[in-house]
Amino acid sequence: MPEQTTSAFLPRVLTGDRPTGQLHLGHLFGTLQNRVRLQDEGLDLLVLVADYQTITDRDSPASLPQDVEELIADYLAVGIDPARSTIFAHSLVPELNQLLLPFLSLVTLPELLRNPTVKEEAAASGMTALNGLMLTYPVHQAADILFCQATIVPVGADQLPHVEQTRMIARRFNRRYAPERPVFPEPEAMLSDAPVLLGLDGRKMSKSRNNAITLAAGSDETAALLRRAKTDSDPNITYDPAARPGVSNLVLLTALCEELDPREVAEQIGGRGAAELKRRTTEAVNERLRPIRERRAELMRDRGYLRTILRDGSAHARGIAAETLRQVTAAMHTNY
Question: What is the band of 4 on the pLDDT scale with cuts at 50, 70, 90?
């Protein structure tokens, strides 16, 4: 049997977010900047608005249409260009979701139950028992990735089990149905080298923990939020993430915004204490976010445009999905 290799497929990147709240600084430095870089390097970038995945651990809220518009505004404001990248939604690409059925036949219940990310996400959301969608969340993610035959998936380390399960599903489908001419690549995870930003409470910055500075936050709001960020009693500012996580997080945030080394920032502030550090961080964050906020505010004044971007991108994604589904039905002998 010939070995299936990802290099046999055109390079394509799949990434995305659930529309469960505004994106924040952690997203900007952790994923969004990298997406813009990949787009600018000429890679085919598909960005998923994962609206169906909002119901894995919550009810579909009445605010969902606005949440989706805000997410698209965040994408465009940071530099994702709909003329060069595809922004689409689960609910508008039914062919993608149709892949869930054959993919479910390729995994076992013990394999689903062993996925550590599912357990962590269920615990974080307060679920006392897994519902069917949460249990099969990795399989739905596999459909997200494989419907467009993506070869690259930018992820954090916590998402590696999902990518590995996707690779397993692709491998099993090809071996069972298409050993001579594989339908799916085995996508490679692209790990971000961006450092993890802590939230205002000292835990990882997260939408669900309400401890983040969003891209949409105003300058006064940002200043107020940073004033309550955790520091310590030592007035001499140093960069030591292990021993001084709160102080070091503010130093790192400043350095990311100013494109400096964090140790250089710490040395510049020196013995002027936490008050000066917070002032410098506030100034750096507001300056870094200023053009993003201006562009975002402009975009939110034309929600019809945002929906047009989503509809056009989803139409393009449907074309890709339809071709993949044609290959799948041919391989499965269900093309009658």
Answer: low
